[in-house]
TrEMBL record:
Belongs to the ROK (NagC/XylR) family. The lineage of its organism: Bacteria, Bacillati, Actinomycetota, Actinomycetes, Micrococcales. It holds the Pfam family ROK. Gene3D superfamilies: 3.30.420.40, Winged helix-like DNA-binding domain superfamily/Winged helix DNA-binding domain. This is ROK family protein.
Amino acid sequence: MARDSTLRFAAQTDEVTSLLRIVNLVRTGEATTRPEIGRITGLGRGVVTQRVDQAIDMGFLADGDFGPSSGGRAPRTLHFRADQGRIIVCALGAVHIHVGVAALDGDVIAEVHRSWDISRGPADTLDVVMSMIDEVLERTGDAPVWAVSVGVPGPVDFETGRPVAPPIMPGWNGFDIRRRFEQRFGAPVWVDNDVNLLALGERAERNRHHADLIYIKIGTGIGAGLLSRGRIHRGANGSAGDIGHVRVPDADAPCRCGKIGCLEAVAGGWALVREAQARIDAGEASRLTPDELTTESIALAAEDGDALAIALLQASAKVVGGSIATLVNVFNPGVIVIGGAVASAGELYLAEVRQRVYELSLPLATRDLEILQSVNDRNAPLRGGAELAREQLFEVTFARWFADGRPTSERVSTPA
């Protein structure tokens, strides 16, 4: 009797495993017909037919058009039902909120953006976020919410989804961001550093799913998202890539984190605004005006040839390039993508970064290295947030919830 129970359990486990694999093969486009599924999995035609029918009945797959014939009867294609659910993505920045809704294939189908100061705290911020979510959901039909991704501009403990001593987010330390979303939508919620979402967005945009890639965001602050073989490297506690608070040699500028000489205190956007203000006050000629000083205005002025703005950006790029060179020697990426408001000055900034990286990095580490500017698409963090949710849903937690037909926070979210 015990042996029979063991055999039944083993058979059920094999069935579940093969069913999950088939859904993911179709979802990723690796196999789009029943014969292709059989060739890749080694399953017999009858078993493939049974599993595909199960996946169709559960709402994960659907039949499509007939594919090309290889000599016999043309096979019917299969497609993943990306319309069955929605992914909500909330990208919180230092001075803005960006909210979008994506289908299960990662396609962003609606979005809204507004200016906002993250230092106003979690209660007011999440009130605004919820109203923005209502706005975009009204434009995307009545499909259920399957997941929520939230990006924030500070260190996050990925296991708990709570910010940890974020320098530019007063009142957010240890705050349970997940709880309000889970209460509202009953869906799993993932919270991550905003630059990790940007790295995932670049992975999707450039189709570099197996890349060793570093995304460097140089905006108000500075941070790095590290992709190792296409996967985010967060480190033991989620702080990997937080280069904005690495000490710059001989620097003594006070940082918002409370330390002295941090990279972002010397070369970040708020540091450039501070330096521009001081030099204008000292009488240095510039098109920049004190009442309109922002990271973006400095980048635009540099593109227009303003000498002060150019000098500030080149100084920033030189210091940032030195820190990136350390990452290159340690991490050995194949691609570095530079993004953020400061880096929007384009080749003016990138040229200085490249020169510094090649000066200070090992020849082997830079032999095949590409240093590129971000595509600078406003929807990049939304795409990245959708990538994060899809990865967690279909590659990490799928087996926990697939029998229910849709994920819930009780079955999926990592315990706090």
